[in-house]
Design a protein that fits this description.
Blueprint lengths: L2 E3 L17 H11 L1 E5 L1 H9 L4 E7 L7 H6 L5 E4 L1 H8 L8 E5 L6 H5 L4 E5 L5 H13 L4 E4 L9 H6 L9 E3 L6 H7 L3 E5 L6 E2 H7 L4 E5 L8 H6 L2 E4 L11 H11 L5
Parallel strand pairs: 1-4, 3-4, 6-7, 6-11, 7-8, 9-11, 9-12, 10-12
Antiparallel strand pairs: 2-5, 3-5
Length: 269
């Protein structure tokens, strides 16, 4: 393995890692360039275990031994090493979770293939907070959701904060970005899914009632923070479902609500 020692923050070889704190820039740049950042040794190991391919590694000298087995597995992938101060100049923040890696984004999976055999699907409408996106993926992985679909304006599941909060579970839950929103909900219905919008409406049924019905295939739509579900999405859904609230609380954070719903609505057979 050949390690490349960095001496300047302007080194063009590490352009993948520059300005990582500029959310707007990275949201535009990373999908366009077919890459994403795996932050921390644990996350990059999970990415590799999922079959994702590294473009390069980026780390301080003290983490080299910790990842020696990884470097042996990918001897042709460059590993860039620098001082903690220099790495912070490049990325915009202090690296304290080990190494980072620039990864190739996996090719999108066609929806029919993604949904084949799926019984429980989460659909995220315009959820822009990457912490919430990552937390929802972690709950989906833990509680048996088969796939996640995200609307065109939803946050990127492979943005580094989403990946980090999910603890790398975004690599194990199949997901896809929809193009026609909310039109693609009709496609889910054609595939036999009951589409349930999680929203507080006058005619919403409780989670318990929907769980008793136990739909064979269920797509649960979760709305954006604050504004909630759009009128077009509600109209395209088969029904609305709610978590009954107590003590004057009107709702839960969308990530917390997703975990409650995923558990309650799991297949019962």
């Amino acid at each position: 393995m050949t390690f490349h020692h960095l001496e300047s923050a302007d080194d063009p070889r590490v352009s993948d890692y520059t300005q990582l704190t500029d959310v707007h820039l990275r949201k535009l740049r990373e999908p366009a360039e077919g890459m994403y950042i795996a932050e921390s040794s644990r996350v990059l190991r999970r990415a590799l275990a999922a079959g994702h391919r590294p473009r390069s590694f980026f780390l301080a000298e003290k983490w080299v031994q910790d990842l020696a087995d990884v470097f042996e597995q990918y001897p042709d992938v460059p590993a860039y090493i620098g001082s903690a101060a220099l790495l912070e100049d490049i990325t915009g923040f202090h690296l304290h979770r080990g190494a980072m890696a620039a990864m190739h984004r996996p090719a999108p999976v066609p929806l029919p293939e993604l949904l084949a055999g799926a019984r429980r699907v989460a659909v995220l409408e315009d959820i822009v907070d990457h912490t919430n996106v990552g937390a929802i993926f972690r709950s989906a992985a833990a509680l048996g959701v088969d796939a996640v679909l995200v609307s065109p304006r939803c946050g990127d599941p492979l943005y580094r904060r989403s990946v980090r909060v999910s603890m790398g579970t975004v690599f194990q839950v199949p997901w896809a970005r929809l193009e026609d929103w909310p039109g693609d909900l009709a496609m889910l219905r054609e595939l036999g899914f009951t589409v349930a919008a999680m929203e507080l409406t006058d005619d919403a049924v409780s989670l318990e009632e929907l769980a008793i019905r136990n739909p064979e295939r269920l797509a649960l739509v979760l709305g954006t923070e604050g504004a909630g579900m759009s009128a077009g999405t509600l109209a395209a859904a088969d029904l609305a479902v709610k978590i009954p609230m107590r003590a004057g609380v009107d709702s839960l954070n969308v990530a917390a609500a997703s975990a409650v719903a995923f558990w309650e609505l799991r297949p019962r057979d």
